[in-house]
Amino acid sequence: MLQRKGVQVFEAPLSRYMEMYCDMRYAIECTRKLSVRKRIWKTISVSNIGDGRLSTLQTKIKGTEQNLKGLVDITQNIHSKERAEEILLRIEQISALVEAIAQSLELSKIHIAVKAVNGTWNDENEEPLLEGTRQELLEDIVKWADNPDGEQFFWLDGMAGTGKSTISRKMASLFQDRGILGASFFFKRGQLDCDSANKVIPTIAYQLMNLFPRLKKEIQEVIKKDALIFEQTLEAQFTALLLGPLKQLEISGHQRLTMVLILDAMDECSNQYPVDAVPKLLLLLSQLKGVKVLDMRFLVIGRPEAPISDGFDRLDESKYFKVSLEQVESVKDDISNFLRTKLNKRKAHCMRVNLHGRNLFEIPETWPEESLIEVSTESACPLLIAASTMTRFIGASKFSPVERANIFLQNEGSRSNTFEVYRTVLDQFVSVDDLTDKRQILEDFHRIVGPIILLYNPLATNALSRLLGIDQSLIDRRLRDLRSVLVVPDQEDVPIRLLHLSFRDVLFDDKTSQMGQFKVDAKAQNHNLAMRCIDVMSDKKGGLRRNSFCFEHKPVDHECSKVNDDKGKLEPHVSYACQYWVEHLQNCPDTFDHDLVYAFFADHFLHWLEVMALFDMTSEALRHLVELEKILSASVRDPKDTLSERLILTIYSENAKLSADKISS
Q: If you average pLDDT over residues 496-517, what whole number do you get?
């Protein structure tokens, strides 16, 4: 009885304990993937519990086991699903990344003119628009852009030196701040790609797709289908890269967005390749009026020369609004303000230096007198470049600004036109007492400045020295006194540029004799540059050779991926020679020794082709060969003795050498 009573007393707690214990044992054993029930019965032994109670307990354990199994299965399914979703998400992320990389690689093939885009490093030395000037004109351009019924084109023309590019950069900055600058292309004659009509449409497309990323996929598909699209006609490029993708573009919202595209100095666009390029470009761009989501406006700026005038003549007059810069009423006041501001700035600098006890120059309190401003304004008007040249000349650091200003006042000729402004600057450049020294300075001017104004792509002093074969210290010394007309950076590896193209114009102009001893013989200079280019490329130490880029012998795909990185291994002066020697020869076809060309090709034809291919300029190389064939054939007596025949023999000979080298090795 006592035994039975003891069982009754402990029965309920023991049952609960057993259930808890079984649950714990089950959880442990479940992780070991063993039969839970068998292990429980092997490890649990409770005496004095009746068979009935044990049977009930066993049933409860079975039920608990089933419930736990169900919970474990659910938990495992949840974890498996979450893990699967994580893996799928990761796969999608990797896939998107791979797709983005592939897209970037395709889009990197776009042939753009980097230096022609607004805001590049090339703009650093450009003088900004003086605050408070050109206000009336700037307001007119803004009103045109904001008017939903405004003309598609705003044509601003002006003669050389009237400050057109300064206005272009100001408007580009203003429109960019407002978020309506679609693209820009600043043409520059003689600079790599910046004067090429074939680079205009790809460069505009590149800028637009950065503004509207949805265009990237469309343009990527175009490049995939036709990798040679950039070598095709302007019409084909326009349809594939601009018109087609823009028509497919969709933008949220129903309002049509206005985007302004700026084409500056369009008169400096090469109108030769392709022929009639400027009128064609204007006609093609006018077709963008049909794009539904964008109101494409064009601010076209340039001299009133035939190609631009012809292009606008082909357009309906309702499509463009024309303003001539010389006719803007505020031009005279703007030039006067410019001169006053610049001269006062130079005066303030001298006075600050004098306060520190250095007594740089004595400058009267009343300087610059109003009479100086008036005379200088009359002399410069309407050419801002004339005013800029004056202030740079007067403000030269090692001269008294008062004395330099008096030079202009005393020279009545300098107050008549731009030619005389430049002439005054150059006369001071050679102003020395010793006649021998004067002759030497003048000779150096033609040896150094002559090539600078003819280069198709500007070079830094170190590269210029090696191209011309002139000591760099001499170049630095001479250019130091020409900062009124040239942009001469302090760094030896930054290109030297013309302050304005009008300086080159006055030195070459055959219609005037005002430049006298400074007049540059373009044909002689081109001949000298062509010969120097051939000498540079033929140089045994630093010129062309097999594998000029020093590629290692690795798989082709690896080499191709390194091409862009290895461009810098070719010295800048050698790179320039490879790209432009034929251009210089074309400008002096009857003055050079044709045998030199044959001799160069006999030794370096394949080396030159390799470099041009790696510069992605194969089409230019072929065009050069066609032009050379025309020039050389004019002096060949034997019709079979052509450049083509000689090049075939050269390639055959080179292949024979390679085969012999392989056999011997």
A: 79
